[in-house]
Design brief:
Oligomer: single chain
Strand order of the largest sheet: 1-2
Helix content: 55-70%
Number of helices: 6
Structural class: mainly alpha
Length: 105
């Protein structure tokens, strides 16, 4: 069975095969499996971050994810995960301190 989108190149006498369609489909599937944070959840995370910054405390992501109000604001079938909250917090840090986090703009 042939794979659609199969590209073949030769470099240094070796045949290199890439399957770009398969990689794109896999990335799309992975992204669709991750539940997206709602606007209300993002606002709650930003509020928790401001409070943590003002008090000098760390943000407890597990506490945020298990909060009943946070859960109610999100998707019931696919609730937000710790990884998604950490990713969003990293995005906030990249916007706030681009030179520290290494983000190139």
């Amino acid at each position: 069975m042939a794979i659609r989108g199969k590209d073949e190149e030769t470099k240094n006498g070796m045949k290199i095969v890439t399957n770009m369609d398969g990689e794109i489909r896999a990335n799309n599937k992975l992204n669709s499996m991750m539940a997206k944070l709602t606007k209300i959840q993002k606002a709650a995370i930003r509020k928790k971050k401001k409070i943590a910054d003002a008090t000098g405390e760390n943000i407890n992501v597990k506490e945020i994810v298990t909060d009943n109000v946070f859960k109610a604001a999100g998707d019931k079938k696919e609730p937000a995960t710790v990884q998604e909250v950490n990713t969003y917090l990293k995005e906030l840090l990249d916007k706030e301190f681009p030179e520290v986090t290494g983000s190139k703009r």
